[in-house]
Amino acid sequence: MKVINIHKRQINQPKTELAKLLKTLATDNDMMLATDKWSPMILDKGLQVGSKGGHGPIKYFVTEYQPDNSITFKFDLKGFDGFHKFEFSETEPNKTQLTHIIDLITSGTATLKWVLAIRWLHDAYIEDAFDKVENHFSKDKKSSEWTWWVKTLRKVMKPKKK
């Protein structure tokens, strides 16, 4: 199944300010991802081409990194052939569009996983990440609401405590 999933958010800051946040991705002080709500991104060699890692059960590796513009990851999961990417584009002075793109083809059980769970969790994950970025620059804090399905999936998939 062909999947194109795009999230965009206009941030009232110059591109250079968002690029500073991108440089913290997958660090202990990650300013891009909502690590208080979701699994952090872990990369074995940090932000550089060839670095392997992922977040939670989603695995990938860095294929392209332009510190002031974008980072691209190729999925390293059976049945997921494609990439995901964060990118910035200045739309006018002091306004930057933050974009996350998934472009992939699923096959086999990966298609069911995408349709039933991953898509919904991913959408919430990215909106929470975009909230974190926007909130870094704003007094009025944004908090995207999870759908009942995301809440249900998170409850069902929550690791059991020992």
What key phrases describe this protein's structure?
alpha+beta; 3 helices; Alpha-D-Glucose-1,6-Bisphosphate, Chain A, domain 4; 7-stranded antiparallel sheet; 7 strands; globular; 162 residues
Fold and architecture overview:
28% of the residues lie in helices and 35% in strands. It is α+β, with helices and mostly antiparallel strands and 162 residues long. The chain has one domain: START domain (Alpha-D-Glucose-1,6-Bisphosphate, Chain A, domain 4). A seven-stranded antiparallel sheet has the order 1-7-6-5-4-3-2, covered by helices on one side. A hairpin with an 8-residue loop joins strand 2 and strand 3. Helix 2 crosses helix 3 (148-157). The longest helix has 28 residues, at 109-136. The mean pLDDT is 95.
Instruction: Give the end-to-end Cα distance, rounded to a whole number of Å.
Output: 38 Å
> SSE string, helix = H, strand = E?
EHEEEEEEHH
Supply the number of structural domains: 1
Strand content: 25-35%
Helix content: 25-40%
> Main beta sheet, described?
7 strands, antiparallel
Per DSSP, the total helix count is 3
**CATH superfamily membership:** START domain
- Contiguous low-pLDDT stretches (5 residues minimum) are none
Radius of gyration: 16 Å
Main sheet: strand order: 1-7-6-5-4-3-2
CATH topology: Alpha-D-Glucose-1,6-Bisphosphate, Chain A, domain 4
Number of strands: 7
Shape: globular
Average pLDDT reading: 95
By secondary-structure content and strand pairing, the structural class works out as alpha+beta
Assign the CATH class.
Alpha Beta
CATH architecture tag: 2-Layer Sandwich
